[in-house]
């Protein structure tokens, strides 16, 4: 092999290495990520906080129904996804074929909040009653114990493929929805708007949409709504046996309709996605999630020192 051929090969390898070098690091760059739409408030908060301390970074966040969001990550259209479930065996196998090992990080406990308009005087429901609603045995408000309204129960969700709907159907082992009065809109915010205007509607949203009391949008969205308390007991004897999706009730596993939030990443180098995951896993991430009103996987520890005088 003559010197010119060797030199050409060396230059080619250098150029190939330069082209394949990742364009982002934990503190610099721009990537596309995706998330289930029901998680938008907490995802916006976390990514904005990270960009605030790392001004040379930018996350292009795409909000989709959960299955579409996960599919974006699988197709490499997004670096990572915020999801309420882990990958299934088929999805893991698809990444394994590409020799990609998915990173899974549990970051918080969220929940499904049940909302009705303020025209309802009663704001309590049991899991047994919810089960009968999703099985088509209860179809009208007056069939619920303590109900103050009459009329058909309309179940309102953000999307046909939303994690909220998937969670409720799976929770009550529902495979046939043809007999249910299900109405879908395009976002959790639209669910809130619809329920506010329609007394017979029962809405299902991600808790993080209404849990951060410090955010003006949260206060605005919560107006003229009631959040139902839910009891796992079939025949509760007191109001104390019902639980709303408050942070403490999520953390102590008292609220029945709770779920986990994960980050699923296909990132193969030490890049911006990994930087965000590390940021969330540390104390500051737990503190931000705690502020949002849901329960962090790693609660922020507050140390209090008392002096005896």
From TrEMBL:
What is the source species?
Larkinella arboricola
Q: Which residues form the PBP domain?
A: 23-282
What name is this protein filed under?
Phosphate transport system substrate-binding protein
Organism classification: Bacteria, Pseudomonadati, Bacteroidota, Cytophagia, Cytophagales
**Any idea which UniProt keywords this protein has?**
Signal
Is-annotated flag, keyword Signal?
Answer: yes
Keyword Iron-sulfur listed? no
């Amino acid at each position: 092999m003559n010197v010119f051929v060797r030199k050409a090969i060396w230059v080619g390898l250098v150029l190939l290495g330069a082209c394949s070098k990742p364009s982002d690091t934990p503190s610099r760059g721009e990537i596309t990520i995706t998330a289930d739409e029901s998680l938008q408030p907490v995802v916006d908060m976390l990514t904005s906080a990270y960009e605030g301390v790392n001004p040379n970074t930018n996350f292009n966040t795409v909000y989709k129904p959960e299955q579409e969001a996960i599919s974006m990550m699988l197709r490499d259209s997004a670096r990572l996804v915020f999801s309420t479930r882990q990958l299934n065996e088929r999805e893991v196998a698809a990444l394994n074929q590409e020799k990609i090992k998915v990173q899974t990080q549990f970051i918080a406990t969220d929940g499904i909040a049940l909302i009705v308009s303020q025209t309802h005087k009663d704001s309590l429901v049991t899991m047994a009653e919810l089960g009968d609603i999703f099985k088509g045995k209860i179809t009208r408000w007056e069939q619920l114990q303590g109900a103050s309204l009459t009329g058909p129960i309309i179940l309102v969700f953000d999307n046909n493929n939303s994690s909220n709907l998937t969670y409720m159907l799976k929770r009550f082992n529902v495979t046939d929805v043809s007999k249910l009065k299900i109405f879908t809109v395009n976002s959790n915010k639209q669910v809130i708007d619809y329920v506010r205007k329609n007394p017979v509607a029962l809405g299902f949203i991600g808790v993080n949409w209404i849990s951060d009391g410090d955010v003006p949008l949260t206060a605005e969205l919560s107006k003229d709504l009631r959040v139902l308390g839910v009891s796992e007991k079939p025949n509760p004897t007191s109001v104390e046996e019902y639980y709303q999706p408050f942070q403490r009730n999520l953390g102590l596993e008292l609220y029945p309709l709770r779920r986990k939030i994960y980050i699923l990443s296909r990132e193969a180098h030490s890049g911006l996605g990994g930087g965000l995951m590390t940021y969330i896993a540390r104390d500051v991430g737990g503190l931000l999630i705690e502020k949002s009103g849901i329960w962090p996987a790693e609660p922020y520890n507050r140390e209090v020192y008392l002096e005896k005088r």
